[in-house]
Design goal:
Layout lengths: L1 E3 L4 E3 L15 E3 L7 E5 L2 E5 L5 E3 L6 E2 L1 H10 L8 E6 L2 E7 L4 H12 L14 E9 L6 E10 L6 E3 L1 E4 L8 H15 L5 E2 L5 H23 L31 H14 L12 E8 L5 E8 L2 H8 L3 H11 L21 H11 L14
Parallel strand pairs: 1-6, 12-14
Antiparallel strand pairs: 1-2, 3-4, 4-5, 6-7, 8-9, 9-10, 10-11, 11-13, 15-16
Helix pairs in contact: 4-7, 4-8
Protein backbone atom coordinates (compact mmCIF):
# COMPACT_ATOMS: atom_id res chain seq x y z
CA UNK A 1 0.00 0.00 0.00
CA UNK A 2 1.30 3.42 -0.90
CA UNK A 3 0.11 6.36 1.21
CA UNK A 4 0.83 9.97 0.21
CA UNK A 5 0.34 12.72 2.79
CA UNK A 6 -1.82 15.61 1.67
CA UNK A 7 -3.39 13.65 -1.17
CA UNK A 8 -6.02 12.43 1.31
CA UNK A 9 -6.17 8.93 -0.09
CA UNK A 10 -4.46 5.61 0.66
CA UNK A 11 -3.97 3.90 -2.67
CA UNK A 12 -3.20 0.26 -3.34
CA UNK A 13 -0.41 0.05 -5.89
CA UNK A 14 -1.40 -1.57 -9.16
CA UNK A 15 2.05 -2.47 -10.50
CA UNK A 16 5.52 -3.11 -9.18
CA UNK A 17 7.74 -0.07 -8.62
CA UNK A 18 11.42 -0.58 -7.70
CA UNK A 19 11.36 1.31 -4.41
CA UNK A 20 14.43 0.35 -2.33
CA UNK A 21 12.33 -0.87 0.63
CA UNK A 22 14.51 -2.09 3.53
CA UNK A 23 13.86 -5.38 5.32
CA UNK A 24 12.40 -5.11 8.80
CA UNK A 25 13.66 -6.88 11.89
CA UNK A 26 12.66 -10.52 11.87
CA UNK A 27 11.13 -10.20 8.39
CA UNK A 28 12.49 -10.47 4.86
CA UNK A 29 10.75 -9.08 1.83
CA UNK A 30 9.75 -11.60 -0.79
CA UNK A 31 11.70 -10.50 -3.93
CA UNK A 32 9.04 -11.70 -6.37
CA UNK A 33 6.15 -10.11 -4.50
CA UNK A 34 7.07 -6.84 -2.72
CA UNK A 35 3.55 -6.52 -1.31
CA UNK A 36 4.02 -9.60 0.88
CA UNK A 37 6.53 -10.49 3.58
CA UNK A 38 7.98 -13.67 5.02
CA UNK A 39 7.89 -13.92 8.82
CA UNK A 40 10.53 -16.04 10.51
CA UNK A 41 9.12 -18.44 13.14
CA UNK A 42 10.47 -21.37 15.11
CA UNK A 43 8.88 -23.81 12.69
CA UNK A 44 10.46 -22.19 9.67
CA UNK A 45 9.32 -19.59 7.16
CA UNK A 46 5.58 -19.08 6.92
CA UNK A 47 4.43 -16.88 4.09
CA UNK A 48 1.67 -14.46 5.08
CA UNK A 49 -0.02 -11.56 3.38
CA UNK A 50 0.95 -8.27 4.93
CA UNK A 51 1.05 -5.09 2.80
CA UNK A 52 3.99 -2.79 3.31
CA UNK A 53 2.95 0.82 3.96
CA UNK A 54 5.29 3.35 2.37
CA UNK A 55 4.99 7.00 3.37
CA UNK A 56 5.52 9.54 0.61
CA UNK A 57 5.70 13.31 0.90
CA UNK A 58 3.10 14.89 -1.38
CA UNK A 59 5.37 17.89 -2.00
CA UNK A 60 8.75 16.39 -2.90
CA UNK A 61 7.69 12.70 -3.32
CA UNK A 62 10.50 11.38 -1.14
CA UNK A 63 9.71 8.01 0.41
CA UNK A 64 10.42 7.13 4.04
CA UNK A 65 9.20 5.41 7.17
CA UNK A 66 6.43 6.78 9.35
CA UNK A 67 8.84 8.15 11.96
CA UNK A 68 10.94 9.99 9.39
CA UNK A 69 7.83 11.18 7.57
CA UNK A 70 6.39 12.88 10.64
CA UNK A 71 9.56 14.95 10.99
CA UNK A 72 10.04 15.57 7.27
CA UNK A 73 6.56 16.95 6.57
CA UNK A 74 7.20 19.81 9.01
CA UNK A 75 10.36 21.02 7.27
CA UNK A 76 9.85 20.06 3.61
CA UNK A 77 10.88 23.14 1.59
CA UNK A 78 8.77 22.29 -1.48
CA UNK A 79 5.42 24.04 -1.81
CA UNK A 80 5.27 23.65 -5.60
CA UNK A 81 7.20 21.77 -8.29
CA UNK A 82 10.81 23.00 -8.65
CA UNK A 83 10.48 24.49 -12.09
CA UNK A 84 9.16 27.33 -14.20
CA UNK A 85 5.42 27.83 -14.45
CA UNK A 86 4.45 27.77 -18.13
CA UNK A 87 0.66 27.50 -18.00
CA UNK A 88 -2.14 28.53 -15.67
CA UNK A 89 -5.89 28.43 -16.09
CA UNK A 90 -7.74 29.05 -12.86
CA UNK A 91 -6.53 26.55 -10.30
CA UNK A 92 -4.76 24.35 -12.88
CA UNK A 93 -1.08 25.05 -13.50
CA UNK A 94 1.74 23.42 -15.45
CA UNK A 95 5.41 23.54 -14.44
CA UNK A 96 8.39 22.72 -16.62
CA UNK A 97 10.88 20.77 -14.51
CA UNK A 98 14.36 20.00 -15.85
CA UNK A 99 15.32 16.41 -15.13
CA UNK A 100 19.02 17.32 -15.11
CA UNK A 101 18.70 20.15 -12.59
CA UNK A 102 16.12 18.40 -10.39
CA UNK A 103 17.21 14.79 -10.64
CA UNK A 104 16.05 13.54 -7.22
CA UNK A 105 12.60 15.15 -7.53
CA UNK A 106 12.03 13.61 -10.96
CA UNK A 107 13.29 10.18 -9.86
CA UNK A 108 10.92 10.12 -6.89
CA UNK A 109 8.04 11.26 -9.11
CA UNK A 110 8.78 8.45 -11.61
CA UNK A 111 8.88 5.84 -8.85
CA UNK A 112 5.47 6.90 -7.58
CA UNK A 113 3.89 6.92 -11.02
CA UNK A 114 5.35 3.50 -11.85
CA UNK A 115 2.92 2.12 -9.25
CA UNK A 116 0.10 2.94 -11.69
CA UNK A 117 1.75 2.42 -15.11
CA UNK A 118 2.59 -1.11 -16.19
CA UNK A 119 4.73 -0.29 -19.25
CA UNK A 120 6.81 2.50 -17.73
CA UNK A 121 10.55 1.72 -17.83
CA UNK A 122 12.16 5.05 -16.96
CA UNK A 123 13.01 5.32 -13.26
CA UNK A 124 16.39 6.89 -12.59
CA UNK A 125 17.79 8.20 -15.91
CA UNK A 126 15.98 11.52 -15.92
CA UNK A 127 18.76 13.86 -17.05
CA UNK A 128 17.77 13.93 -20.72
CA UNK A 129 14.06 14.53 -20.09
CA UNK A 130 11.83 17.52 -19.41
CA UNK A 131 8.92 16.97 -17.04
CA UNK A 132 5.71 18.98 -17.29
CA UNK A 133 4.06 18.63 -13.90
CA UNK A 134 0.38 19.57 -13.51
CA UNK A 135 -0.94 20.93 -10.23
CA UNK A 136 -4.41 21.73 -8.90
CA UNK A 137 -5.11 24.17 -6.09
CA UNK A 138 -6.85 22.50 -3.14
CA UNK A 139 -10.01 24.39 -2.24
CA UNK A 140 -9.64 23.74 1.48
CA UNK A 141 -5.92 24.32 2.09
CA UNK A 142 -5.06 26.52 -0.89
CA UNK A 143 -1.98 24.37 -1.62
CA UNK A 144 -0.98 23.23 -5.09
CA UNK A 145 -1.29 19.46 -5.36
CA UNK A 146 0.47 17.48 -8.06
CA UNK A 147 -2.17 15.56 -10.00
CA UNK A 148 -0.11 14.23 -12.90
CA UNK A 149 2.68 14.89 -15.35
CA UNK A 150 4.05 14.05 -18.75
CA UNK A 151 7.67 13.82 -19.80
CA UNK A 152 9.41 14.31 -23.12
CA UNK A 153 12.93 13.93 -24.37
CA UNK A 154 14.90 17.12 -24.56
CA UNK A 155 16.07 16.14 -28.05
CA UNK A 156 14.15 13.34 -29.76
CA UNK A 157 15.57 11.87 -32.95
CA UNK A 158 12.28 9.99 -33.53
CA UNK A 159 10.09 13.11 -33.22
CA UNK A 160 8.48 11.96 -29.98
CA UNK A 161 6.69 14.80 -28.21
CA UNK A 162 5.77 12.67 -25.18
CA UNK A 163 7.50 9.78 -23.42
CA UNK A 164 5.23 9.12 -20.43
CA UNK A 165 1.94 10.54 -19.20
CA UNK A 166 -0.13 9.85 -16.10
CA UNK A 167 -2.94 11.37 -14.09
CA UNK A 168 -3.01 10.10 -10.50
CA UNK A 169 -6.11 7.98 -9.67
CA UNK A 170 -8.13 10.56 -7.66
CA UNK A 171 -8.12 13.01 -10.59
CA UNK A 172 -8.66 10.69 -13.53
CA UNK A 173 -11.59 11.06 -15.96
CA UNK A 174 -11.76 14.82 -15.44
CA UNK A 175 -10.07 15.97 -18.66
CA UNK A 176 -6.61 16.62 -17.22
CA UNK A 177 -5.02 13.95 -19.41
CA UNK A 178 -6.48 15.54 -22.53
CA UNK A 179 -5.09 18.92 -21.46
CA UNK A 180 -1.59 17.46 -21.19
CA UNK A 181 -1.89 15.75 -24.59
CA UNK A 182 -2.96 19.01 -26.22
CA UNK A 183 -0.11 20.85 -24.51
CA UNK A 184 2.43 18.29 -25.79
CA UNK A 185 1.26 18.80 -29.38
CA UNK A 186 1.42 22.57 -28.89
CA UNK A 187 5.08 22.24 -27.87
CA UNK A 188 5.91 20.15 -30.94
CA UNK A 189 4.16 22.59 -33.27
CA UNK A 190 6.08 25.50 -31.75
CA UNK A 191 9.28 23.59 -32.51
CA UNK A 192 8.19 23.05 -36.10
CA UNK A 193 8.02 19.30 -35.55
CA UNK A 194 5.49 16.68 -36.58
CA UNK A 195 5.45 14.49 -33.50
CA UNK A 196 3.58 11.94 -31.49
CA UNK A 197 3.78 9.80 -28.36
CA UNK A 198 6.43 7.20 -27.75
CA UNK A 199 5.09 3.67 -27.97
CA UNK A 200 3.75 1.38 -26.85
CA UNK A 201 0.69 3.14 -25.50
CA UNK A 202 -1.25 1.77 -22.57
CA UNK A 203 -4.97 1.05 -22.95
CA UNK A 204 -5.96 4.31 -21.25
CA UNK A 205 -3.31 6.19 -23.20
CA UNK A 206 -4.61 4.91 -26.53
CA UNK A 207 -8.16 5.93 -25.62
CA UNK A 208 -7.05 9.43 -24.73
CA UNK A 209 -4.90 9.89 -27.82
CA UNK A 210 -7.52 8.47 -30.17
CA UNK A 211 -10.05 10.95 -28.78
CA UNK A 212 -7.61 13.82 -29.36
CA UNK A 213 -6.74 12.68 -32.90
CA UNK A 214 -10.40 12.36 -33.89
CA UNK A 215 -11.36 15.75 -32.43
CA UNK A 216 -8.41 17.54 -34.06
CA UNK A 217 -8.95 16.04 -37.51
CA UNK A 218 -12.73 16.55 -37.52
CA UNK A 219 -12.24 20.12 -36.33
CA UNK A 220 -9.84 20.72 -39.22
CA UNK A 221 -12.23 19.21 -41.78
CA UNK A 222 -15.12 21.28 -40.46
CA UNK A 223 -13.06 24.43 -40.75
CA UNK A 224 -12.33 23.82 -44.42
CA UNK A 225 -16.00 23.50 -45.40
CA UNK A 226 -17.34 26.19 -43.06
CA UNK A 227 -15.60 29.25 -44.43
CA UNK A 228 -18.02 32.22 -44.67
CA UNK A 229 -18.86 33.57 -48.09
CA UNK A 230 -16.70 36.46 -49.35
CA UNK A 231 -19.42 39.09 -49.16
CA UNK A 232 -16.87 41.89 -49.39
CA UNK A 233 -16.01 40.76 -52.96
CA UNK A 234 -19.58 40.92 -54.30
CA UNK A 235 -20.22 42.79 -57.53
CA UNK A 236 -23.55 44.27 -58.50
CA UNK A 237 -23.13 43.35 -62.19
CA UNK A 238 -23.90 39.69 -61.52
CA UNK A 239 -25.41 38.11 -58.41
CA UNK A 240 -22.87 35.25 -58.47
CA UNK A 241 -19.84 37.10 -59.80
CA UNK A 242 -17.92 36.42 -56.60
CA UNK A 243 -18.06 32.70 -57.30
CA UNK A 244 -15.61 33.19 -60.15
CA UNK A 245 -13.07 34.92 -57.93
CA UNK A 246 -10.46 33.03 -55.89
CA UNK A 247 -11.42 32.76 -52.27
CA UNK A 248 -8.68 33.31 -49.67
CA UNK A 249 -8.71 31.04 -46.62
CA UNK A 250 -9.38 32.30 -43.12
CA UNK A 251 -5.64 32.84 -42.70
CA UNK A 252 -4.17 34.70 -45.72
CA UNK A 253 -1.99 31.97 -47.18
CA UNK A 254 -0.13 32.61 -50.46
CA UNK A 255 -1.90 31.27 -53.53
CA UNK A 256 1.25 29.55 -54.78
CA UNK A 257 2.98 26.95 -52.60
CA UNK A 258 6.35 28.18 -53.90
CA UNK A 259 5.47 31.64 -52.63
CA UNK A 260 4.57 30.10 -49.29
CA UNK A 261 7.97 28.49 -48.98
CA UNK A 262 9.76 31.67 -50.02
CA UNK A 263 7.74 33.84 -47.62
CA UNK A 264 8.34 31.32 -44.85
CA UNK A 265 12.06 31.49 -45.53
CA UNK A 266 11.98 35.27 -45.30
CA UNK A 267 10.16 35.10 -41.96
CA UNK A 268 12.79 32.68 -40.65
CA UNK A 269 15.48 35.12 -41.60
CA UNK A 270 13.72 37.89 -39.72
CA UNK A 271 13.05 35.81 -36.60
CA UNK A 272 15.25 32.75 -36.23
CA UNK A 273 13.57 31.78 -32.95
CA UNK A 274 10.20 31.16 -34.61
CA UNK A 275 10.08 27.60 -35.93
CA UNK A 276 6.33 26.99 -36.01
CA UNK A 277 4.87 24.67 -38.60
CA UNK A 278 3.92 26.61 -41.76
CA UNK A 279 0.20 26.86 -42.44
CA UNK A 280 -1.05 24.64 -45.28
CA UNK A 281 -2.34 26.12 -48.52
CA UNK A 282 -5.98 25.09 -48.96
CA UNK A 283 -7.67 25.59 -52.33
CA UNK A 284 -11.40 26.34 -52.17
CA UNK A 285 -13.98 26.74 -54.91
CA UNK A 286 -17.52 28.06 -54.48
CA UNK A 287 -20.40 26.89 -56.63
CA UNK A 288 -24.17 27.32 -56.76
CA UNK A 289 -27.04 25.06 -57.72
CA UNK A 290 -30.68 25.80 -58.53
CA UNK A 291 -33.21 23.81 -56.50
CA UNK A 292 -36.61 22.71 -57.97
CA UNK A 293 -38.42 25.31 -55.85
CA UNK A 294 -36.28 28.07 -57.31
CA UNK A 295 -33.99 28.36 -54.28
CA UNK A 296 -30.31 28.90 -55.00
CA UNK A 297 -27.87 27.03 -52.76
CA UNK A 298 -24.19 27.92 -52.56
CA UNK A 299 -21.65 25.23 -51.72
CA UNK A 300 -17.90 25.05 -51.24
CA UNK A 301 -15.32 22.53 -52.35
CA UNK A 302 -12.02 22.38 -50.47
CA UNK A 303 -9.11 20.44 -51.90
CA UNK A 304 -6.34 19.33 -49.59
CA UNK A 305 -4.08 16.34 -49.11
CA UNK A 306 -2.98 14.14 -46.24
CA UNK A 307 0.09 16.33 -45.99
CA UNK A 308 -2.12 19.36 -45.37
CA UNK A 309 -3.91 17.61 -42.49
CA UNK A 310 -0.58 16.61 -40.96
CA UNK A 311 0.80 20.11 -41.37
CA UNK A 312 -2.27 21.78 -39.84
CA UNK A 313 -2.73 19.45 -36.85
CA UNK A 314 0.86 18.38 -36.13
CA UNK A 315 -0.27 14.72 -36.00
CA UNK A 316 1.94 12.15 -37.67
CA UNK A 317 0.79 10.72 -41.04
CA UNK A 318 0.30 7.18 -39.71
CA UNK A 319 -2.03 8.41 -36.97
CA UNK A 320 -3.99 10.57 -39.45
CA UNK A 321 -4.38 7.60 -41.80
CA UNK A 322 -5.39 5.35 -38.90
CA UNK A 323 -8.11 7.76 -37.72
CA UNK A 324 -9.50 8.37 -41.21
CA UNK A 325 -9.65 4.63 -41.81
CA UNK A 326 -11.30 3.93 -38.46
CA UNK A 327 -13.91 6.61 -39.10
CA UNK A 328 -14.59 5.34 -42.61
CA UNK A 329 -13.67 8.66 -44.21
CA UNK A 330 -10.88 7.46 -46.48
CA UNK A 331 -11.23 5.91 -49.92
CA UNK A 332 -8.51 3.46 -50.79
CA UNK A 333 -8.92 3.94 -54.55
CA UNK A 334 -7.71 7.54 -54.29
CA UNK A 335 -6.10 9.25 -57.24
CA UNK A 336 -2.44 10.24 -57.15
CA UNK A 337 -1.24 13.70 -58.03
CA UNK A 338 1.12 13.88 -60.96
CA UNK A 339 3.62 16.19 -59.26
CA UNK A 340 3.53 14.74 -55.71
CA UNK A 341 3.19 11.54 -53.76
CA UNK A 342 0.31 12.76 -51.58
CA UNK A 343 -2.93 10.78 -51.67
CA UNK A 344 -6.07 12.87 -52.29
CA UNK A 345 -8.99 11.94 -50.02
CA UNK A 346 -12.55 12.70 -51.12
CA UNK A 347 -14.95 13.64 -48.33
CA UNK A 348 -18.45 15.07 -48.16
CA UNK A 349 -20.01 17.47 -45.69
CA UNK A 350 -22.62 14.86 -44.76
CA UNK A 351 -19.94 12.28 -43.96
CA UNK A 352 -17.98 14.72 -41.81
CA UNK A 353 -21.02 15.84 -39.82
CA UNK A 354 -22.22 12.26 -39.39
CA UNK A 355 -18.86 11.21 -37.94
CA UNK A 356 -18.69 14.32 -35.75
CA UNK A 357 -22.08 13.50 -34.24
CA UNK A 358 -21.24 9.83 -33.72
CA UNK A 359 -17.82 10.27 -32.09
CA UNK A 360 -18.95 12.95 -29.61
CA UNK A 361 -16.20 15.43 -30.30
CA UNK A 362 -14.64 17.11 -27.28
CA UNK A 363 -13.94 20.80 -27.12
CA UNK A 364 -10.26 21.71 -26.73
CA UNK A 365 -9.17 22.26 -23.15
CA UNK A 366 -5.85 23.94 -23.94
CA UNK A 367 -5.74 27.62 -24.86
CA UNK A 368 -2.66 29.65 -25.74
CA UNK A 369 -4.03 32.67 -23.89
CA UNK A 370 -3.26 30.91 -20.59
CA UNK A 371 0.43 30.44 -21.41
CA UNK A 372 2.96 32.16 -19.18
CA UNK A 373 6.00 33.49 -21.10
Amino acid sequence: MCFASGLTFPELVRYYSPYPIPAREGKDLEPDDPGRVIVKTEDGLNRIEEPFILWICHQCFKYMSLEAFQDHIKICPHTKPPGRKVYQNGGVSMYEVDGFQNKVYCQCLCLLCKCFIDIKTLYFDCESFLFYVMTLVDEETGEEQVIGYFSKERFSFNSHNLACIIVLPPWQKRGFGMLMIEFSYYLSRKQGMIGGPEGPLSDLGLIGYYSYWVSSIIRFLRQQISVPLPKDNLETSHPFSYLKKPRHPVVPYPANPDDASSSSANEDEEDESDHELPAPVIKRRYYHSMMPNGEVRVGVTARFTMKDIVQATGIRPREVAFVLHQLGLSRMEAQMQADADDVVIILSREAIESVAAACRMKEPRFSEKHLIP
